[in-house]
Amino acid sequence: MTNDRETGLVLDPKYDAAGLITAVCTHGDSVLMVAHMNAEALAKTLETGEAHFWSRSRGRLWKKGETSGHVLHVRQVRIDCDQDAVWLIVDPVGPACHTGEPSCFYRLVEGDRLARA
Amino acid sequence: MTNDRETGLVLDPKYDAAGLITAVCTHGDSVLMVAHMNAEALAKTLETGEAHFWSRSRGRLWKKGETSGHVLHVRQVRIDCDQDAVWLIVDPVGPACHTGEPSCFYRLVEGDRLARA
User: Fold this and answer.
1) Residues facing A99 on adjacent strands
2) pLDDT tens-digit profile of B66-114?
3) Mean pLDDT value of segment A102-113
4) What pLDDT was estimated at residue B2?
5) Fewest CB within 10 A of the end CB: N or C in chain B?
6) What's CA B115's distance to the chain center, in Å?
């Protein structure tokens, strides 16, 4: 059930067919956002200490906050067992969501309806 | 920049080409795991209060803990702005990772090396 990728100490991300892994950003007990990273975005994030992602809609590398100024300072990067997802523990400068909410997850799911969190 | 899916109060998940959304599970300030849900997995999770996912490797619905007993009791489900990711706040019964670790994110990324968190 385990292998080198799971138990080893070498960074070896398992990129999907589009060359992406999932990135989850948290601050304290709040999930701020979920986005995607390609190899370049991960490298830039590790190098600069600011979160970079791959924008699937725009088809380009994207530094979070590049226009809004709402960058995410990265305190720690963790990777999961099969290395297809990273968890970034961050300090956000301003709201993480483009809607102006602190977190993108500003709604609760209650059956087939949503409610403000 | 916003639309009904982002600002409305109707559950309208934006499934990808494979019919999946991303699901992030947290307990306190820890991200336990990241997995995927199809519509059925989301419905089962909301209906039962126990986390269900779609296993991409096995190609079937999967109740977390169905064999190990390490189920995730779901306290709250939130959805993000564009409704392609859900955040589950859970109470885990036992370790969340199949390796026996409490969280799948048991390694830090430090350059191109990993270290125990």
Assistant:
1) none
2) 999 999 999 999 999 999 999 999 999 999 999 999 999 999 999 999 9
3) 96
4) 58
5) N
6) 24
Q: Which of A80, A99, A116 to mutate to test the interface with B (most CBs of B within 10 A)?
A: A80
Q: How much is the mean pLDDT over chain B?
A: 96
Q: Which two tokens stand for residue A64?
A: 């979070």
Residues 6+ apart with CB under 8 A from A53: A23, A35, A36, A37, A41, A61, A62, A64
Identity of residue A47: E
| Residue B7: DSSP 8-state | H
Q: Is B69 helix (H, G, I), strand (E, B) or coil?
A: coil
CA distance B102 to chain A (A): 11
With CA atoms as reference, the chain A residue closest to B98 would be A1
H or E element at residue B40 = helix B39-48
- Residue A111 CA to residue A38 CA, distance in Å, equals 34
CA distance B43 to B52: 9
Residues in chain B: 117
3-class DSSP state of B47: helix
pTM assigned to the model: 0.96
Contact A45, A37 (CB under 8 A): yes
Q: Cα A77 to the chain's mean position, in Å?
A: 10
